[in-house]
Write a structure and sequence with these properties.
Elements lengths: L2 H10 L7 H22 L6 H12 L1
Amino acid sequence: MIIKEIAKQVIDNLPNEVTMDDIMHALYIRTKFDRGEREIREGKSISHEEVRRTLQKWLK
């Protein structure tokens, strides 16, 4: 699906009474979600256990 179609789909799924900020936020969230899924498929994600270990180091 091309980007313009995705944007239209996101906007069409919002309620009729939305602000421009609501639309921009919905598009932003969709973009971040898609990027995260792509990074997971490409093996660029960090496991939950790795995050937990790193967080424990930061909290000391």
